Amino acid sequence: MCMSFEYIFLTMVIPWPSNPKYFIDVYLELLIEELQNLWHVGVLTSGSARDETFAMHAALMWIVNDLPAYGMASGWSSAGVMGCPVCMEDTRAFYLQNGRKACYFNCHRQFLPPDHP
């Protein structure tokens, strides 16, 4: 059953001219709604081992992507001074005066204990 056509892994390849880039969350919205339904409500399934019907729930355990893809999927900017998805608005990053580039100098230490060497 799991290898039948409707259960094959779904991939989405979008060619360059119509690449959604920053609007990929629009394409993923239906997937998110379906995953929420599978998590909270479930779907009735019949088990062949005991010949009974039960509600099967599903969850997305994790996704593997890089930081720019994370920014596209979540809608959070992964560039500039608020580019860290963990810190968000609480970052100590700043823009350099002459280069107008984001600088994260010494920002990584905020997660360490004060007495860390």
UniProtKB/TrEMBL annotation:
<dbReference type="InterPro" id="IPR004242">
    <property type="entry name" value="Transposase_21"/>
</dbReference>
<protein>
    <submittedName>
        <fullName>Uncharacterized protein</fullName>
    </submittedName>
</protein>
<dbReference type="Pfam" id="PF02992">
    <property type="entry name" value="Transposase_21"/>
</dbReference>
